[in-house]
Design a protein that fits this description.
It comes from Lacihabitans soyangensis. The protein has no helices and 16 strands. It is mostly beta strands. The protein has a five-stranded mixed beta sheet, with no helix packed on it. It starts with a strand and ends in a 6-residue tail after the last strand.
Length: 151
């Protein structure tokens, strides 16, 4: 049985000699011993059946394949703000979130806040969303401007 992410290969394998007949979801058929489905999608999820015929005798087996979708993720809009203001990082999606950014910033919550922004927190922030063993990433750019100096 296989559990893979959408877009990955499905490798169906068998051993022994004979004539092979594979069938599966979405009208899949193959006479190869070890067929591969390139660029899988969720419609490839299901049971694949194999029948091998040798000298008039047949044997059958099945295997299950689950193709999990890549989670849909959006990072919030790019932001420009003044030093001392809050950086509010936002994202949409469902699953496990992981943020990283300048100065070793990291967070495991969906929408983290940096309460008091400093100049060294300007840069690219990356959020990764994981669900069912599959992941996707998105970025947002934060620019922190210095406060004017009054003399």
């Amino acid at each position: 049985n296989q559990n893979i992410c959408e877009g990955n290969l499905i490798n169906l394998t068998s051993s022994g000699g004979g004539d092979y007949s594979w069938t599966g979801p979405s009208g899949f058929t193959s006479t190869s011993q070890n067929p591969t489905i390139n660029s899988s999608n969720v419609l490839n999820t299901g049971v694949y059946s194999l029948t091998i015929t040798t000298n008039g005798c047949t044997a059958s087996a099945t295997t299950s394949v689950t193709v999990n979708p890549i989670p849909t993720l959006t990072a919030g809009a790019n932001q420009t703000l003044c030093e001392g203001n809050a950086i509010n990082l936002t994202s949409t999606g469902s699953g496990d979130f992981s943020w990283s950014g300048p100065n070793g910033f990291s967070s495991l919550i969906q929408n983290p806040t940096i309460s008091v922004a400093s100049l060294n927190q300007s840069g690219i922030y990356t959020v990764t969303l994981s669900l069912n063993g599959c992941s996707s990433s998105a970025t947002t750019s934060i620019t922190v401007n210095s406060l004017p100096i009054i003399t």
